[in-house]
Amino acid sequence: MDESELRRKAEVAELLLHAARRLGEGIEPERVYERFHELIGDVLQHDGLIVSSYDERDDLIRCEYAWTDGAVLDPGALPPLALNREGGGMQSRVIVTGEPELFDVPQRVTSVDGVFYNVGAEGRLERIPDAGPSKTTAAMMVPVKDEGRVVGVVQLMTDRGVYTEEQLELFDGLVAQMGAAVRAARLQQERRRLEAAEAAARAVAAEREQAAHVLDAVGDGIFLLDHSGVVLIWNSAAALVTALPAGEVVGRRLVDFVPAWDGLAGRIPVADEGAMAPSVTLPFELGGRDVWLSFVAVRTSAGLVYAFRDVTVEWRLQEEKSDFVATISHELRTPMTAVYGAAQTLLRHDLDLPDVQRRALLEMIGTQAARLSEITEDVLLTTRLDRDELTVEREVVDIAKVVRSTVETMRSHLPQEVHLELMIDDDVGAASGDSDRIQQVLVNLIDNAAKYGASPVYVSAAGVNGAVRIEVADAGPGIPAADRERVFEKFYRSGPPTTRAAGGTGLGLYISRELTERMDGRLRVESEAGGGARFVVELPVTT
Fold first, then answer.
1. pTM value > 0.85
2. Rounded Cα distance, 310 and 290, in Å
3. pLDDT tens by residue, 227-236
C-alpha cells in the first residue's frame, strides 16, 4: 500500500471517528438523520438522500428520511415498498445480498419488480420512463445492519457525474456509524417511553389490584389478600420489612405467618376502590422485635390491597419529643417554683426575715439555679451529641487522679446519708481519652447510683485485659433485665415511680454512653434483681 493510500485510509478513519462523535450526540432518531445528512454534505456531493428501514416480519421497506432537490420530504408521504427477493429493484437487491452497490443508472430511488421510480420535489413517486428521463446519473446504496441482519438501506444520488469505489467505502463507513447512532437513540427513546409508562402506572396503581407488581421497587410494602386471606401479591419491600420472602408467603394465608393479623386487620379502615384510603399506625411484633407500621387498605374486586411502611423511627422520635416536653417541664418546674417562691419571700416588705432565714432562702435560690443550669447543660450537650457537633480530645489521662478527684468532689455534693467507697488498684495505668469527659461520665454514674441505688456507692478503677476499667456499683434493688439497655435511652428512667422521687432528666446515662463510645470505649451495666447495679466503663490504654 503506497503512501497516498495510507494517507487516504487515515483521513477516512479520522472522518469516521468524527462522525461517530457527532452522531452519538443525537438523542432522537430524526436528529441523527439530520446530522448524518450534514456530515454527508461535507464529504460527498449529492442531490438526493433516502434512508429506509426494512422489517423482515412483513417484508416492507419504509422511508425514514428523504431529501431531494434541496428540500426535506415527509417520509409518511412515500408509500412502503414490498421487498423483491428476486433481486428486482436497487433497494431490494442490496437488502437481499447485504452488500453495498454502485449504480450509474438514471433513477433515484428504488423499484418494485424491476420497475424504477423517481422521487419528485413534492415527494411523489414517478415511474420511469413515463415521467421522462431522470436527471440522476449515479447512486450508491448501502445496507444498514444490526448484529448481522439487514434492517435498512441508505441511498445517495447525484445528478452530476458518477461515484467511485473509494466514495462507496467512505459512504459505507458513515452509514454504519449512523446505524449505530440510530439504534442507540431508539434504545434511549424506548427507555424514556418505558419510564413514562412506569410513571403512569404508578399514578393509578393505588386503584388497581396489580399495584404490588408496579410498585415492587418502591419503599412501601404492598400485598394483596383474596377474600379468604390468602396472599396473592407480596412485593419486595414487604419482604424486606417483615423478613418474610415472597416465595414463602404467596399462596398461603397471612395469618399462618402473622398470628395476630386477624386482630390487627379489624383495626385497619378499608376504603372502596377509587376512594381516599385513611391511614392508621399500629404496633406490630416482627421477628421478636416491636415495630410500628402505618397501614392503608383499599377494597378491590380481587380482595384487599394493603400498603404499609415502617414508621418505628418516626414514632420513637415522636415519643422522645413527648418525653422531652414532659420530663423537662417537670424538671424545670421544681427548681423554678423554689426560686420564684424564695425570691418573692425575700421581696416582701411586710416580713422582717432573720439573717439566717434570709441566707437560707438565698442558698436555696443558688442551689436551684445551679440545678436549672445542669438541666440546660444536659439538654444542650444531648443536642450536640445527636448532631455530632461535640469534639472529644485524645490525650493521656491519669485515671487514678481523675477518679480520686471526682469522688472527693462528689462527696461534698451528695446527701449526707450517701457514702462513697473508693478503691484504686496500683496497676490502673493511664488511658487514652478526654479527662474532662471521663470526669463527666463518672459524675453522671455516681449521681445515678445515689438517686436510684442504696448507700454505700462503690467506685473502683483497675487495669484489666489491656484496658482501663472504672466501676460504679450500688446496693440498690437492681435493674430488671428488660430495662438494662433501655436505661441508656434518652429520657428513660428505670423502676416504679416511687424510685424517681429524686428526679432527673433521664439524659445522664445516654450522655455517658455517647461520650464513652466517642473515646473508643464501652459502657455497660451488670445487675441482678435485688443485687444492686454495677456500671462498667472500659477505656483503651495508651500505647
1. no
2. 11
3. 899 999 888 8
